Amino acid sequence: MSALEWALLAAIVGLAALVLAAMALGARALRRIGTASTAPAVDDSAFVAEKDRQEQSLAALRTAADQASSSVDTAKSAAASARADAAAAKAEASAARAEAQRVLDAARAEADTVLDRAHRQAETDAEQVRAAARRSGEREISLLASTTREQAAEVERRAQRMDERERLHTEEVERLAERERRLTAAAAELTAREAGLVAREAALVEAEEQQKRELERIANLTADAARVELVDAIEGQAKREAAILVRDIEADARNTADQRARHIVVDAIQRVASEQTAESVVSVLHLPGDEMKGRIIGREGRNIRAFESVTGVNLIIDDTPEAVLLSCFDPVRREIGRLTLEKLVLDGRIHPHRIEEVFETAKHEVERLCQRAAEDALVEVGITEIHPEMVSLLGRLRYRTSYGQNVLKHLVETAHIAGIMAAELRLDAPTIKRCAFLHDIGKALTHEVEGSHALIGADLARKYGEAEEVVHAIEAHHNEVQPQTIEAVLTQASDACSGGRPGARRESLEAYVKRLERIEEIAAGKSGVEKVFAMQAGREIRVMVKPDDVDEIGAAVLARDVAKQIEEELTYPGQIRVTVVRESRVTEIAR
């Protein structure tokens, strides 16, 4: 619908609304008139009822008559006002009809005007559209003409290229035909030469067989025996040359890589100042006197039984003067028991109820100490964002030792060494320090969870949202998983530096003796070895060889083989130097 039609529709709707409003006003006036006309009937019925009641009581009848008279007067006045309202309503209705007629006439005139204007506007728009279409058609015609000309030119160029390609193709066919003729001639020539070569090869094979038989007759050796001797000679020469080459390469590598690695490791270790003393594995509590042992035991041993039941720590009371021993596989629980017993001894009151009270106090105190130790370690290393459960587990390592080395101090030292190495190599030092600091966190649960502490620590780190680089470095630092990243390799190196430095860890006598025996067995099992000496607590091995059986190149090969076998079979801190001693002796007898 056009704008003109919408305007006409709106005018018609407005007129209809006005007519409906006038009709509503008229209906309301008529209802008022009807209401006023029915009121006297209602009052008459009330008057009749009152008249019946007047028959029963004369006094009431008079009062009702007065009320009826007043009601009649009121009804008359209401009827007069209703008539006036009806007249006014009729006047309003006639005025509304006149106004509606006038509005309708005005709307019709306005609609005619709008319709005429719309017709003129439509003709103007149609003329503009026709002009625009004419101009667009002219542009399309010109564009099609230019496109047609370009396509004709393109067709002509393609025809020229096709002619040129056809000419080139013809020339190529001629060249290929000429080449085929030459190849046919060459093939015939090659066939003739091949026949000659076959005949010549047969003659050469026959001559070679004759020469081979003649050589076997002169040398008194078969071809297989000569080949074996030649292979042995070449193999020995190759081994000597390989040993010389390996020696030269190793010397060059030591002058560069060894010096650089030594500088980095030594610098990292020198810049980390750590204590070399280690805490004892067994907790010892000194008593003010031997009479305190009886109070600790209690009547019929009830105090010691209550203490062991509450703390989970075995209390060993022997003949050691003024001292008792506390034994437990869990170092945190052992420390809680030691602190509990210490507080009981200082207090003097030792009975089962008091043991339980002091145990709870000591437990909270040890937990605070663990939390404080973990927070101090994190501040020292420079790690700020870490899960609270990880902090609690790190605090438990304050009372855990590994070969006499405190694990929490070992983690701090390892983190510092790894950070210095990363800075020297221009790597991401914070990430590598985090890997090194968390690599032994699994030792906090090795008494509670089965498995390697590396895999336990990796599961913990993955559970508490650590990055994948940190998780891989933790699980690979003891080669349960092959290291795949530079973070894992540096974590292994820093762990070895911290654990392998002199005085850091203690080794059991049995493992130490077995390692020395195995080192001597490896060296003594080589051919040409006369004596073997393990020196400097197994950090150097000297191999005495027989000079007649082993030459200088063989000595270098022997040292390399022994070192390689020790690396593959044994686990040891630091490094082991292998020295092969070949002494040349010349003996003459004067007669």
UniProtKB/TrEMBL annotation:
<dbReference type="InterPro" id="IPR004088">
    <property type="entry name" value="KH_dom_type_1"/>
</dbReference>
<keyword id="KW-0255">Endonuclease</keyword>
<dbReference type="Pfam" id="PF01966">
    <property type="entry name" value="HD"/>
</dbReference>
<dbReference type="InterPro" id="IPR006675">
    <property type="entry name" value="HDIG_dom"/>
</dbReference>
<feature type="coiled-coil region">
    <location>
        <begin position="145"/>
        <end position="224"/>
    </location>
</feature>
<protein>
    <recommendedName>
        <fullName>Ribonuclease Y</fullName>
        <ecNumber>3.1.-.-</ecNumber>
    </recommendedName>
</protein>
<feature type="domain" description="HD">
    <location>
        <begin position="407"/>
        <end position="500"/>
    </location>
</feature>
<comment type="function">
    <text>Endoribonuclease that initiates mRNA decay.</text>
</comment>
<dbReference type="InterPro" id="IPR022711">
    <property type="entry name" value="RNase_Y_N"/>
</dbReference>
<dbReference type="InterPro" id="IPR006674">
    <property type="entry name" value="HD_domain"/>
</dbReference>
<dbReference type="InterPro" id="IPR017705">
    <property type="entry name" value="Ribonuclease_Y"/>
</dbReference>
<dbReference type="InterPro" id="IPR036612">
    <property type="entry name" value="KH_dom_type_1_sf"/>
</dbReference>
<dbReference type="InterPro" id="IPR004087">
    <property type="entry name" value="KH_dom"/>
</dbReference>
<keyword id="KW-0694">RNA-binding</keyword>
<keyword id="KW-0175">Coiled coil</keyword>
<keyword id="KW-0540">Nuclease</keyword>
<feature type="coiled-coil region">
    <location>
        <begin position="72"/>
        <end position="117"/>
    </location>
</feature>
<dbReference type="Pfam" id="PF12072">
    <property type="entry name" value="RNase_Y_N"/>
</dbReference>
<dbReference type="InterPro" id="IPR003607">
    <property type="entry name" value="HD/PDEase_dom"/>
</dbReference>
<comment type="similarity">
    <text>Belongs to the RNase Y family.</text>
</comment>
<feature type="region of interest" description="Disordered">
    <location>
        <begin position="117"/>
        <end position="141"/>
    </location>
</feature>
<dbReference type="Pfam" id="PF00013">
    <property type="entry name" value="KH_1"/>
</dbReference>
<keyword id="KW-0378">Hydrolase</keyword>
